[in-house]
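User: Predict the structure for this protein chain, please.
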Amino acid sequence: MKNKYGVITETIDEMVTYFSRLYSEHDTNLQHYKAKLFEINVRLDELSRTQNVYALNTDYRKSVFSPISMEPEENEKEREIKKEMDSLQTERDSYEYKINEESIYLKGIDKRLKNLSASKTELTSLVMDYGKKEEEIRQKNQEIKEQNEKEIKRRDEKRKSNLEEASLKKHLKNILMLSTFDDTYYSTVLDKRVKKVIAENNRKLENVRGYIYSSPGRSKVLLDEVSSSQTSMIQLLDDQLSRLNYNFDDEMPLKEMLTKYIQDVKDKHPSIPIEVSIDDDMHKPGFDRYIVLKKLLNIFFDNIYKHSKAKLIKFSAKENDENYIFEIYDNGIGLKDNYMNNKEWYSGLNRAKELIFMIGGEMSIDGSKGTKISFKFKNE
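Assistant: Here is the predicted structure, written as C-alpha cells:
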C-alpha cells in the first residue's frame, strides 16, 4: 500500500507541476494580450480625437442654385485614419477573443489543480484507513498543504506583479504623454505668440523708418502698436515663466511659501475669501516633493477659480510624524461621481493624479457638497 501510495502521489505531484507551469504560461499570455489591448484602445482613442479634428474642418456647403446639399469628401488623411482604425478594431476583436479564450482555459486548468489537490487529500484519508502511521500522514498532509500554499502564493504574487507592472506602465505612459503635450504647448506659444509678434513688430518698425519724415502721425500709430504688443508679449512671457515655476524658491520655509501662495491667489481673486489653517512647525520637504506641491496647488486653485463658481475656499496644511497632509475645500457646484471619466487625459486632475503617483502620495476627491480635495505624502 505504501509503495502504491507513493507512486500515486508522485504522479499527482507531477501533474500539479505540469498544470501549474501550464497555468503560468497561459497567465503570461493573458497579461500580454491585455497589455496589447490597452495599447490598441489608447491608439484608437488618439485616432478618434484626430478624426474629430478633421471632421470639424469639413466644409458642408449648399449651392444657391440647387437645394441638394453637397456632401463633404473625405480627404486623404481621414481615409488613412479610418483605414488604421478599422485595422486596429479588427486587431482589438482578435485580442478580446484571445483574452476570453485564455480566461476559459485558465479556469479549466485551475479546476484541474483543485481536483488534483482534492484527490491527493482523499488518497491520504484512504491511506489512514489502511493503517498508515498517524505521524507519517500528518507530515505528508503538512507537505501537501505547504506545497499548495506555496503554489497559491506564487500564483498570487505573479498576478500581483503583473498588475503592478501594468499599472506602472500606464502611469509612465501618461507622464510621458503629458510631458510631450507641455512641450508642444510651450513651443506653440513661443512660435505663434512670441516669434510671430516679434516678426510683425519688426515689419512695423521698418515701416516707421519709411514714414518717420513723410508721415509722423502714422509713424506714431505704428510705434504705439509695437509698444502695446511688446507689453502684451511680456505679460504672456511672465505667465509662461510662472507656469514653469521659473521664480520658485526651494529654500523658502514651507509655511512661508504656503502663506505667500495663498496671499497671491487672494490678491488675484479678492472676491472669493479663503480661510487658512497652516501648522507653525512644518519642515521643508525635499525638492521633488516641494516642487510637486507647488504644481498641485496651481492645478487645484486654477480649477476652483475657472470651474467651481465658489463663494468660499478653505485651505489647511499640517504635518504629523509621517506625512504632510493638505485639504482644499470650496463651496461651489461640486463634482459628479464619474468626474474622471469625462476628463481629457491632459486635464488638471489627471495631471494631479500622476504628480501624486510620482512622489508616492495619496489623493481623494469628494464632490458631493462642494468639492473637498485631500492629499498627502510622506515627509522624506
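Residues 59-66 have pLDDT under 50 and may be disordered.
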